[in-house]
Amino acid sequence: MRCRKCHGTATVEIRRHHTAFCSEHFLEFFERQVARAIEEERMLTHRDRVLVAVSGGKDSLALWDVLRRLGYDATGMYINLGIGEYSRESQRKTVAYAEAHGAELLIVDIPGQYGMSVEEFARATGRVSCSACGLSKRYLFNRVALEHGFGVVATGHNLDDEAAVLLGNLLHWQTEYLARQAPVLRSAHPHQVTKVKPFYRIAERETAAYAIVRGIDYIVDECPNSVGARSLLYKEALNLLEQAAPGTKQSLYWGFLERGRPLVRAQDGATLRDCVHCGQPTTGEVCAFCRMTERAAERMRVRRMRTPASPPVSPEPAPGVPAAAGAAPPDR
Ligand code: SF4
Ligand SMILES: [Zn+2]
Ligand SMILES: [Zn+2]
Q1: Rounded to the nearest whole angstrom, what is the distance from the C-alpha of residue 206 to the centroid of ligand 3?
Q2: Model pTM?
């Protein structure tokens, strides 16, 4: 296999384009695809301050890296969701990238700030973990972006992610979601930032190849809560189709953007107003995040009142045992 550009040995094959590149020309191809997505969809200008949602995985670290190389003013933001070792490891990878590249990083610590993890939010409010997690991430990225003067939040959703979401929306005829599925979601309220997905033209294996060629160390393990997720099933189904007919994902998603989306009219959205507790945009009086965290805190209070008081901690701890032993530290 030869590189299309220099005819040297190819290291990355792009079957959907019937082509292959050496490492150097793959990086060139990759950056050109991202630059083209940004320009065609008018996602960003070089005057914008961009907040990049970074999870420590290949897509988000690759996005942060490529945006900075393309000359954008891109700051990373990592949210500690409190999901045990997965969160600890992904935070380590994110911090290591920021330190190695002198990149600015903001960290929001959910257990530290709200006293519980997203899984505890979910348990206390009867949601599934991913629902509580998704709500928390959407809320916090928007809020932190506004508080720090960022006009745009960029996420690492790639072609495989978008095609899988589209397949799910089509299988269930979620017309309202179909109407809102796009590489750019423009702000519809003064307290709402624009969201962009500069990787919508790039396949997942290409973001992995980019991270490997650039030497970016990312977390390989998936979040434990993703096991059995429908989105993974849709991805597997699309991978089978892609294997038999390269270009299937691209033609599904790009075709939808070009021909399907204009046919699905967005219903007039409910008027957004400011949440009376936090000021973030919401359709009701209190936003979904405030309702969730307040309900979770209330459940915790009730549970603590029902639990018999634990014996007082000895003022003279045994040698080697810290006085606070027995109180679980917040999960970081
Ligand atoms: S799999 Fe679910 S809980 Fe885990 S990071 Fe993703 S949305 Fe959050
Ligand atoms: Zn080459
Ligand atoms: Zn609120």
Answers
A1: 38
A2: 0.89
pLDDT of residue 312: 45
Mean pLDDT of the chain: 91
DSSP, collapsed to helix, strand or coil, labels residue 69 as: helix
Under the banding of pLDDT at 50, 70 and 90, the label for residue 265 is confident
Q: Percentage of residues in the chain with pLDDT exceeding 90?
A: 84
Say yes or no: CB of residue 131 within 6 Å of ligand 1.
no
Determine whether the shortest distance from the Cβ of 133 to ligand 1 is under 6 A.
yes
Beta pairing class for 73-80 and 49-53: parallel
> What confidence score (pLDDT) does residue 268 get?
62
Q: Which ligand is nearest to the CA of 4?
A: 2
130 lines ligand 1 (CB under 6 A): yes
Nearest protein Cα to ligand 1, atom 2: 130
With a cut of 50, say whether residue 171 has pLDDT above it.
Answer: yes
Rg of the chain over Cα atoms, rounded to whole angstroms, equals 22
Domains of the chain are: 37-221+231-264 (3.40.50.620)
Tell me, using a 6 A CB cutoff, whether residue 223 lines ligand 1.
yes
Task: Kindly state the DSSP code that residue 224 receives in the 8-state scheme.
Answer: G
Q: What is the pLDDT of residue 236?
A: 97
Q: Any idea which residue has 């949602």 for tokens?
A: 53
Instruction: Determine the atom of ligand 1 nearest the C-alpha atom of 133.
Output: 8
Residue-level pLDDT at 308: 62
- Ranges of H-type helices in the chain: 23-40, 58-69, 84-101, 110-114, 118-125, 129-147, 159-171, 175-180, 204-214, 230-244, 248-255, 288-306
Residue 249: pLDDT band by 50, 70, 90 thresholds?
Answer: very high
Ligand nearest to the CA of 29: 2
Task: Find out whether 95 and 219 touch, Cβ atoms under 8 Å.
Answer: no
